[in-house]
Design brief:
CATH architecture of the largest domain in chain B: 3-Layer(aba) Sandwich
CATH topology of the largest domain in chain A: TIM Barrel
Distance between the termini of chain B: 26 Å
CATH class of the largest domain in chain A: Alpha Beta
Number of strands of chain B: 9
Strand content of chain A: 15-25%
Structural class of chain A: alpha/beta
Order of helices and strands of chain B: HEHEHEHEHEHEEHEHHEHH
Number of domains of chain B: 2
Shape of chain B: globular
Helix content of chain A: 25-40%
Oligomer: heterodimer
Radius of gyration of chain B: 19 Å
Largest sheet of chain A: 9 strands, mixed
CATH topology of the largest domain in chain B: Rossmann fold
Chain lengths: ~425, ~325
């Protein structure tokens, strides 16, 4: 295994140093310090670059098995690596649904074979995402995939009793239920955040309360049974407020926000281009401001992409016919720089915390989200925040092109990604 | 004027008046034995109807034919659309056939907007989901102006005319287009509806809102009754059809509260006995038949202006 000597990076993260060198060998960080040398190592000049612990995504749709026309584990993990990720959690709403040990092990093995980043399967909470019977959560936990995060993402576990049981049950193996908070009755036929824009466009409104009511209920349930709740893709100011309140009580609640909810508002829907159609919907500028504040103060624990690839025909249609979802892996860090760092809300150690340390902790991942330190795993991302803002191309490593940021100038550039000491990305390209 | 007519918001006051004045010129044609003009000879107008709407389709068809355009009626039922063809592929097909204008009716909000991105010809929105129906608003404005403004009203707006729109505003493309167009033309619009049938952010619209029809009626020069769709009746927007009718229906007692000169409009088709009593629909105040006739003239004006340029047609000769 080739050793790598990274020269002159700035380490962001807990205990971060100034400009320093990092030596990677045999999958671990063997040395950190100024003026390191190793004759046998490949040298990477990292002057001006920030070294982050490899990014971890808690919320990725890799679409395999079943929708290989939209994405595969291979293409999705390539996109992840290019975005600076070293681990992704693959959501369970595949075809067949990842609700058995067999399916989660298949996804886990596909991830190992692809090798662009670690793939940690998420198991479904209920059989077939049907919302009526618990899936075999313990069997998935005991499988080779070692599932700890369970989610019916795409659908809400709406039945309060079933949600209570799921939360309770996974305590036996330190699991966490990641809830897609969406009251189904309040969102029947819903298309866009309910407000001025939905009223003007004649698109059925998606009220904030449909998300907030479920989050409030679930926080109370998590407190009642003393089990871990994770709230997926928080999209409203009210949701952030409820989570802040739950945390102030010391309850075991964590939450994520997507890059697109940190940057875009429902105003972008005025052209009826379904590339902006997503679940939960884009909200208002006031919501965006509050989500940023909540991420900055730690109320919202992490950024998760909700990377949701769709084939062209699923988006080249009328708004109401189109699929929900946006890709996000390849742009996440640049969006976070624009929304959080360049606005002064978060520093780079903060980014390391929200995009690596905390998501790894919530996902119960070992070997990821560790501070860059001697003896630690050699998973890291080298990022150039000074790279001039460049328009995002709709064509990337993902099989799908439904990025809402196409044509938008975003700052920064992922220069290199190392997974277990081996580069998956060098000079911004797949290694 | 813009190349497409998708929203009433696309029309400036000048654009709207040009359409109404042109319609006024064209109206004189309707009284002549030969109702046809050669203006759009050789042009092709496609009526692309994904939703059944016989009255709107016939209105556009008559309008195009009176201007001598070739008309192709494309109904989604029994066509390739029923076999799963996408809107985009349908658009590309029409494009290949050389449609100069596409009149589209679709159940999805924004369908006309999307279509305009895929074809070169002009797109006329003949109703898209719960979004807009701008030619309905134009024919309503034309009807109001003819009735309430002296002589032909040419060049005049609707300044100071008080219009009350009653009923399911939330799902109504007719209401959306009328609020925009009538306020552009200077009318004072009030929406009267139960709170469940108003958009959440209706306070951002250029109109007033009332939950009480009875207080709005004496201050109305025009009352526009919206159709109550069958599917609203079972989805808790109001307790029962009878209660809706009692609180928001226009019966003879309510009609008596209107000023003497006030008129009643309805875009059709009507639910007699629900939002409008038969006696009201058939009364002298009712402009419902005039609306249909004016629909053809107004749509002629729209097609003429979008396809034929801004020169005035020689109708008088």
């Amino acid at each position: 295994m080739t050793a790598w000597l990274i020269k002159g990076a700035v380490i962001a993260g807990p205990g971060g140093h100034g400009v320093t060198d990092v030596l990677l060998a045999d999958g671990t960080i063997t040395a950190i310090g100024a003026g390191l040398s190793d004759a046998g190592a490949q040298v990477l000049d990292a002057a001006g670059l920030i070294a982050l612990p490899g990014l971890v995504d808690l919320h990725t749709h890799l679409r395999e098995p079943g929708r290989e026309d939209a994405e595969t584990v291979e293409t999705g993990t390539r996109a992840a690596a290019l975005g600076g990720f070293t681990a992704v959690h693959a959501m369970a709403n595949t075809e067949p649904v990842a609700d058995t040990a067999g399916v989660v092990e298949q996804v886990w093995r596909l991830g190992r074979a692809a090798g662009h980043c670690d793939v940690q399967p998420v198991g479904a909470v209920t059989v077939g995402l049907g919302g009526t019977r618990l899936a075999e959560l313990g069997t998935m936990a005991d499988s080779a995939a070692r599932v700890r995060v369970f989610s019916d993402d795409g659908r809400c576990v709406a039945d309060p009793l079933l949600m209570r049981r799921a939360l309770e049950y996974v305590k036996a193996f330190d699991g966490v239920i990641a809830q897609h908070a969406q009251d189904p009755r309040l969102t029947e036929g819903a298309q866009l955040n309910e407000g001025e824009i939905s009223g003007r466009l004649g698109l059925a409104g998606w009220p904030a309360v449909a998300e907030e009511a479920i989050i409030a209920r679930d926080c109370l349930l998590a407190a009642h049974v003393g089990s871990a709740l994770h709230v997926c893709h928080v999209s409203t100011a009210g949701s952030a407020e409820i989570i802040r309140w739950a945390k102030s009580k010391g309850w075991p609640v964590t939450a994520e926000v997507t890059p697109h909810h940190l940057l875009l508002t429902d105003e972008v829907a005025v052209g009826y281009d379904p590339v902006f159609k997503v679940n939960p919907p884009l909200r208002t500028a006031a919501d965006v401001a509050e989500l940023r504040r909540a991420l900055a103060d730690g109320t919202i624990d992490c950024v998760a992409t909700d990377h949701a690839p769709h084939p062209v025909e699923a988006k080249e249609t009328e708004w109401s016919e189109a699929a929900f979802g946006m890709t996000g892996l390849e742009t996440a860090l640049r969006v976070v720089q624009q929304a959080m760092v360049d606005t002064g809300l978060l520093d780079w150690p903060g980014v390391a915390d929200r995009m690596s340390v905390r998501p790894a902790r919530i996902g119960r991942l070992t070997g990821h989200g560790m501070p860059l330190a001697e003896g630690g795993p050699a998973n890291l991302t080298l990022y150039d925040p000074a790279a001039p803002a460049e328009a995002v191309s709709p064509v990337g490593a993902s099989k799908s092109r439904n990025t809402p940021f196409a044509g938008m100038a975003l700052p920064g550039r992922v220069v290199a990604t190392f997974l277990h000491g081996t580069p998956t990305v060098l000079d911004g390209k797949l290694a | 004027m813009k190349r497409h007519l998708i929203s009433a918001a696309d029309l400036s006051r000048g654009d709207a008046l040009l359409i109404l004045d042109t319609a006024e010129e064209l109206a004189s044609l309707a009284d002549r034995p030969i109702k046809k003009l050669p203006t759009l000879r050789g042009r092709t107008v496609v009526n692309l109807f994904f939703e059944d709407s016989t009255r709107t389709r016939i209105s556009f068809e008559a309008a195009a034919k009176r201007l001598s355009a070739d008309v192709i009626n494309f109904s989604a039922k029994g066509s390739s659309v029923a076999k799963g063809e996408s809107l985009k592929d349908t658009a590309l097909t029409l494009e290949a056939m050389g449609a100069d204008a596409v009149v589209i009716r679709h159940s999805a909000s924004g369908a006309a907007h999307r279509l305009a991105g895929w074809v070169r010809g002009s797109v006329v929105n003949a109703g898209d989901g719960t979004h807009e129906h701008p030619t309905q608003a134009l024919l309503d404005a034309f009807t109001i102006r003819r009735k309430l403004r002296a002589a032909s009203g040419r060049g005049a707006g609707l300044d100071g005319i008080r219009v009350t729109i009653v009923g399911d505003v939330l799902h109504s493309r007719v209401a959306r287009s009328n609020v925009l167009l009538l306020s552009t033309l200077g009318a004072e619009v009030t929406l009267a509806a139960p709170p469940t049938l108003l958009p959440l952010a209706v306070d951002t619209w250029p109109c007033a809102v009332s939950y009480d029809l009875d207080t709005a009626l004496p201050k109305s020069d025009v009352v526009m009754m919206l159709r109550v769709q069958q599917e609203r009746m079972t989805d808790a927007y109001f307790p029962s059809v009878r209660e809706y009718s009692r609180r928001y229906g226009l019966d003879t007692a309510r009609m008596a509260r209107l000023p003497d000169h006030a008129i009643v409009l309805h875009p059709g088709p009507m639910n007699r006995g629900v939002e409008i009593a038969a006696e009201v629909a058939d009364s002298a105040r009712s402009m419902i038949v005039e609306q249909v006739a004016n629909g053809v003239t107004t749509r002629m004006a729209v097609l003429y202006l979008l396809l034929g340029g801004t020169e005035f047609p020689e109708v008088a000769s």
